[in-house]
Amino acid sequence: MFPNKKVQKAIGSKVQVEMKGDHHILEGTLKSVDDYLNLHLVDAVEIVDGEKLRSLGSVVLRGNNIILIIPVEN
Amino acid sequence: MFPNKKVQKAIGSKVQVEMKGDHHILEGTLKSVDDYLNLHLVDAVEIVDGEKLRSLGSVVLRGNNIILIIPVEN
Amino acid sequence: MFPNKKVQKAIGSKVQVEMKGDHHILEGTLKSVDDYLNLHLVDAVEIVDGEKLRSLGSVVLRGNNIILIIPVEN
Amino acid sequence: MFPNKKVQKAIGSKVQVEMKGDHHILEGTLKSVDDYLNLHLVDAVEIVDGEKLRSLGSVVLRGNNIILIIPVEN
Amino acid sequence: MFPNKKVQKAIGSKVQVEMKGDHHILEGTLKSVDDYLNLHLVDAVEIVDGEKLRSLGSVVLRGNNIILIIPVEN
Amino acid sequence: MFPNKKVQKAIGSKVQVEMKGDHHILEGTLKSVDDYLNLHLVDAVEIVDGEKLRSLGSVVLRGNNIILIIPVEN
């Protein structure tokens, strides 16, 4: 299964995403993903040092600025 | 709905955009967006620490330097 | 009007461009732009803290390292 | 053998990957790779100063934010 | 004249190139350029604070990591 | 000769490569290169302040994170 298929399989589930920039970690429910790994998350929260810092709600993440994506198991 | 469609739906509404660089946050009314997520905002303001720092007016943002886009609900 | 058209409309006028890197701001007259938002500016000056630091003359800017472009009204 | 073929040959084996960002090194078993060098690793761990810092499990790495990939010999 | 044509016109002449990374400025004679603005310079020198720091000889620069290109007039 | 051809000509020879990130310099024998300037090096070493810091062996470098490539003359 190619990396982008692995991400598509996580649609409807929680993912954790590390972005470029200030040690940015976001967690949310994955609504959609395209071929560039642009992501649409809902109920997204920003996480700093393991703590929820801020609720972002619905957010679109630009794929080329994603470092890594971790499906969150429940 | 793919991530870029989610952004297109925000045309005419306010969006908040986090750019690469100096913790750059911009807020403005989305006029247009293309497939690279290049954005054209009007009435854009630069926001630092939650305060409006500077009015930029009409501004074009390069898509690959966008970290994330948040539609602002009113 | 798509974002790149907005930039094309500024050909012949002054634009301010924020680049990645050291808080780099350039101002000059836009001579040409292509689909990648690569820009050719003439009479370009580098601006630091609102002061003109250095004249660069004719300069080509790589589109993917542009953060944002602001048409300068006169 | 082209660079991406060299990476494909490592499928099923351990690789060490250096990412952009905070001196990020990840080690895991390579499950898949695509033409953009997006990687899917399983049993991934984050390594800081030669020590395993954190277990990440299954993780997708965005290719354009990879600095280098080293196949780990056993 | 599109930005890449402006660069092609400088083949055989000196150019100054600012790269991403450590305030990297390179000066050399432009031998070739492609559509991605990858550059081949000869007699290249690295410049720091306006001083020639190091001779690099023949060097290939990756286009997407170029901030700007200035043709050097003699 | 286009920049990528200049790099292809160095196959089988030593090259020095400056990467994005922590002032990363790598030296090794170039085994292969593709159109994105992804490189496969063997007998690669990491160089810091002109000293060999670490042997990496066989390594794949992501082209878009390469700043510059210098063929090393013997």
Just give the CATH class of chain A: Mainly Beta
- Silhouette of chain A: globular
Largest sheet of chain A: 5 strands, antiparallel
Please give the oligomerization state of what you see.
homohexamer
What is the average of the pLDDT values of chain A? 93
State which percent range the strand residues of chain A make up. over 45%
Reading side by side through the largest sheet of chain A, how are the strands ordered?
4-3-2-1-5
Helix content of chain A: under 10%
Class by alpha and beta content of chain A: mainly beta
Q: Return the CATH topology of chain A.
A: SH3 type barrels
Tell me how many strands of chain A there are: 5
Number of discrete domains of chain A: 1
CATH architecture of chain A: Roll
Our count of helices of chain A gives 1
Most residues in contact: chain pair: A-B, 22 and 20 residues
How large is the radius of gyration of chain A? Answer: 11 Å
* SSE string of chain A: HEEEEE
Question: End-to-end distance of chain A, in Å?
Answer: 22 Å
